[in-house]
Amino acid sequence: MGAALSVSETLGSQISEEVLPLSAEKIGGAIATIWQDTHDTFGAGQSVARVCLNNLIVVTDDENHSSADELTRDLARRQPSRIFLVCVSDRAEKSGVWVQTACHVGSSPNALVCYEVIAITVRPADVNAVASLIRSLLVDSVPVIGVDFRRIMTAFSLDRALIEMTDRLFVNADAIPAAVTAIDFLPLRWYATLPMREAIARAMDLRLNRNYPDMPIAITVSHDPPEEETAALLVGWMVSRLRQHEWTIHSRQPLVLRHQAGRTITFNLVDRGTTGEPPVRLQFTDREQITIAGNWLTQKRSPMLTVELGDQKEQVKSNDYPLAAYILAGTKDASEFDDYRAAMACLVDLELIHGDYRRKKG
Amino acid sequence: MTENASSIDVVNPFASRFMRTRRAGPFAIVIFGATGDLTARKLVPALFNLYLDGFLPEPFSIVGFARRDWTSESFRNAMSKALDEFSRQGSPDEATKSKFLSHLKYVRGEFDQPEGFERLAATVRKNAIDQQRPLNLLFYLATPPSAFETITRNLNSVNLVSRQADDDNWTRVIVEKPFGHSLESTWQLNGTLHAAFREEQVYRIDHYLGKETVQNILVFRLGNSIFEPLWNRRYIDSIQITVAESIGIGNRAGYFDTAGMLRDMVQSHMMQVFTLIAMEPPAAFDPVAIRDEKAKVLRAVRLPDAEQLGDHVVRAQYTSGLVGGEEAPAYLQEPDVPSESETESYVALRLAVDNWRWSGVPFYLRTGKRLPKRVTDVAIVFKTPPHYIFDQSGCSDLAPNVLRLRIQPHEGISLSLGAKVPGQAVEITPVRMEFDYDTSFGQSSPEAYERLILDAITGDATLFARADEVEQAWRLIDHIRRHWHTLPLEQYAAGSWGPNGAEALVAREDRQWVRL
Ligand SMILES: NC(=O)c1ccc[n+]([C@@H]2O[C@H](COP(=O)([O-])OP(=O)(O)OC[C@H]3O[C@@H](n4cnc5c(N)ncnc54)[C@H](OP(=O)(O)O)[C@@H]3O)[C@@H](O)[C@H]2O)c1
Predict the structure, then answer these.
(1) C-alpha distances out from residue B223 to A282, B216, B281, Å
(2) Which class does domain A192-349 fall in?
(3) How confident is the model at residue B307 (pLDDT cuts 50, 70, 90)?
(4) What letter does residue B465 receive in the DSSP assignment?
(5) Which of A11, A54, A79, A108 to substitute to test the interface with B, most B CBs within 10 Å?
(6) Would you say B375 and B354 are in contact if contact means Cβ atoms under 8 Å apart?
(7) What's the pLDDT tens digit per position in B431-446?
(8) What per-residue confidence (pLDDT) applies to B69?
(9) What is the percent of chain B where pLDDT is above 90?
(10) Residues in chain B closer than 8 A to A263 (CB atoms)
(11) CB–CB of B65/B31 below 8 Å?
(12) For A110-233, where are the E strands, in sequence order?
């Protein structure tokens, strides 16, 4: 992997001169030296604040390295944090650590935002050492947030430690090791549905703000075969939200929700059976059709969502929902975690999910 | 099955709870004085930035009203230029900007002539129907207060004001300071507003309250357990509030010379900051509880004894001097200032608060123009330790701990502490711990106007001044002004920190102004 990150607006970023071994002492020493240099560069006449708001642990493998790198850069830009970027690499010849501290100009003149990145490349054989290394380098008193880009969590000791050390964990895998469920974790698949959920919220706002507000009578979610779980998540979310607003499940096959005032909404989850564009489409069906459709999955390079509300057409870009902002907001606000849990509970209840999810039922 | 209104869920079950929890519902804002300076520099840029951040979902509309012979087209062009110059986030792309500008409309009219208001009413009603939204109207009076009465009367006559509390069809009004120029004129002004609006519909804007640090005063005091126990006469020696400006009066002589610093600055911004520092903890973070406490502490401010007013109040005017290396004329030489003007460009006050918390703790307030720099700062000066165990030989007085809340230019908080200088001797030196907003969060704070306009659209009046608060502040200012002529008008050189009398005001009690 590349040695250091390049943050374009970085001022006088300082990088450790050599590859360091997996040693907390060596790394701690290198950080102190670099800070001393940074301070000498900027210190005169300028107060370099070393506020640290978070410990961020970003874990990746070779395959997802560029996403992890991009996120790390964005996180560094947003808040002063100590960031561990751990790449479990089959390709690396040997394990090693680079340390970088950098300051860049904040939003007002004279303001410097400084951060530290400890980039750890680790051979699978050495992975056991990483958890203890991180543990001894964590900054005290501030939260520990984990983001794991691996599709499957395979390094048992690291996975365990990650789950134990972090206050909040975002994972690219759809499940975390079954033994541990107490922790607040959120799959990135849920994050990927955020633009869609926000579009649904907006579409509903629009309906309700018109002069004759009412709820749709049917909601159809059609999807490509590979997107079944994403589509199911959306249905689970809508059903769980409706259940919090005096709607109850009236029938399961077909899925019909009923309001105490007597109205009903029918949900259709349709597997199109073929692959098309966009991979998931949602429609509120009644007099005035509202369609929300698009590619919004994180895997795609530039996801785009189209919302058609009557004759209005809106485009939502994934850039409007940066992952780094989502993660940092998630450190303060648990509502996404709550929503996810409620949606999952609904899906289990409706028996709309299978496989790994089921294990979390107990 | 027929559905009646009662069966309708008005709450959106899918409402976002995350990231952008607070968004405006559908509304129209009508800006009176739309061709003016405030609209171009603050209001439209604030609305644009709210739009960019996703806080203003469709549908909404922005209607400008003024005298000039503009059209919607020329209004959009003027605002487009204003956005280029004043938008906090710039404008990311032309398409977004022009989409935003397409929400702007202009209605030409005179404040005192009903025809314009009829056109206005027709425009906003048609707009609401076209956009299929409830009328929901926010009026922004970006005009001199003298226009309020005619505007509200004419709004009433075309039935644009609803006094309903109905959340689905609301009317609110934002008024700019000054909120009167005396207690009596404030009563009149409030009377004018209350003839058309209920108090809950009136949002008196003081942009100081939209600043992060000002809001942070309460969070800081009440969200941390270590400060509030110290926030009283047992531990606090005195409190200083400074609002310093380095500029003169620019071309505002017409207004400023009739107002003066006491009314322009002390009555509004300084009193707001003062109340947040001095108020009792409210039972809840809601508009009623907070504003009740603010009004209460203002009532507890002791009116200085008229006989000894000079021990509590200093007024002064600047003479020529150098500010930041540049020559500045005397106040009397500023354009359009009458040659015999006695208007103060500087005021210092010593206030006492008669309650259990603050008995015996002086609050020193100072504000002036043409001071060495632009800074707004609150200094909480703590008492020194009751028993001093270190050898004091060779050092000057031990510095007290000072907690500083910096409101501008760079919002932040600092605490000064005594620490040992490394070495063989026990030598103590004050060190400063700083917490800078921009540096710490790495993101820019929204402009005060953005925050406050969104609050008004979403119906949160917490950060706006209520009629009784404003009246209580005037009670003090009027009292001082009644005896104003008994005070000498001192002088200070432009570029200095104020007149000798201000030094004497604190020195009399063995204190000094904090260094800024
Ligand atoms: N500017 C600021 O930064 C600032 C800051 C805080 C508070 N304020 C307060 O905000 C208010 C407005 O300030 P401003 O600086 O924007 O004032 P301004 O530049 O003088 O603008 C006044 C506006 O009112 C309109 N107007 C005046 N008389 C009118 C009439 N009879 N009929 C119709 N329109 C009329 C003017 O329209 P035409 O020009 O088309 O005639 C203009 O749009 C004042 O109360 C001020 O104290 C301003």
Answers:
(1) 43, 9, 11
(2) alpha beta
(3) very high
(4) B
(5) A108
(6) no
(7) 777 777 666 665 667 7
(8) 96
(9) 66
(10) 1, 3, 7
(11) yes
(12) 112-122, 144-148, 168-171, 184-187, 218-223
pTM of the model: 0.78
Q: Tell me: pLDDT of A135 over 60.
A: yes
Q: How much is the average pLDDT of B400-419?
A: 84
Ligand 1 center to B33 CA (angstroms): 5
Is the Cα dihedral B28, B31, B35, B40 positive or negative?
negative
What pLDDT does residue A158 have? 86
Provide the residue ranges of all domains of chain A, joining segments of one domain with +.
12-183, 192-349
Contacts of B314 (CB under 8 A, 6+ apart): B346, B347, B348, B349, B487, B490, B498, B499, B501, B502, B504, B505
Ligand 1 nearest atom to the CA of residue B255, by list position: 47
* pLDDT at residue A16, as a whole number: 67
Q: Which of B103, B181, B207, B269 is labelled catalytic?
A: B269
**In angstroms, what is the span from residue B34 Cα to ligand 1's centroid?**
8
Task: Determine the residue type at B457.
Answer: I
A223-227, B178-182, B290-294, B380-384: range with lowest mean pLDDT:
A223-227
Top-confidence residue, A53 or B148: B148
Query: CB contact, 8 Å: B388 with chain A?
Result: no
Bridge partners (DSSP) listed for residue B31: B64, B140
pLDDT above 80 for B356: yes
CB B31, CB B37: distance < 8 Å: no
Amino acid A5: pLDDT: 37
* pLDDT greater than 60 at residue A12: no
Query: Most A CBs within 10 Å: which of B439, B441, B443, as the mutation test of the A interface?
Result: B439
Please give the CATH architecture assigned to the domain spanning B3-176: 3-Layer(aba) Sandwich (3.40)
Q: Which residues in chain A are contacts of B58 at CB distance < 8 A?
A: 206, 312
In this predicted structure, the answer to whether residue B423 has a pLDDT above a threshold of 80 is: no
Instruction: Give the DSSP H or E segment for B263.
Output: none
Q: Cα–Cα distances in Å, from A73 out to A66, A70, A102, B170?
A: 11, 5, 11, 45
B269 included as an active-site residue: yes
Q: Who contacts B291 (Cβ-Cβ below 8 Å, separation ≥6)?
A: B461, B462, B465, B466, B468, B469
**How many angstroms away from the CA of B25 is the closest CA of chain A?**
8
What is the pLDDT of chain B when averaged over all its residues? 89
B259 vs B223 pLDDT, higher one:
B259
Q: Which residues line ligand 1 (CB under 6 A)?
A: B 33-38, 41, 66-68, 110-111, 142-144, 147, 176-177
CB contact under 8 A, A79 and B444: no
- Classify the complex by whether its ipTM is higher than 0.85, answering yes or no: no
Domains of chain B, residue spans: 3-176, 209-507
Element (H, E) at B438: helix B437-441
Res. B190: pLDDT tops 70:
yes
Token digits of residue B417: 């502490």
- For B225, counting Cβ atoms within 10 Å of its Cβ (0-12 exposed, 13-18 middle, 19+ buried), the class is exposed
* CATH class in words for B209-507: alpha beta
Q: What does the pLDDT read at residue A28?
A: 86
Place of tokens 């590349």: A2
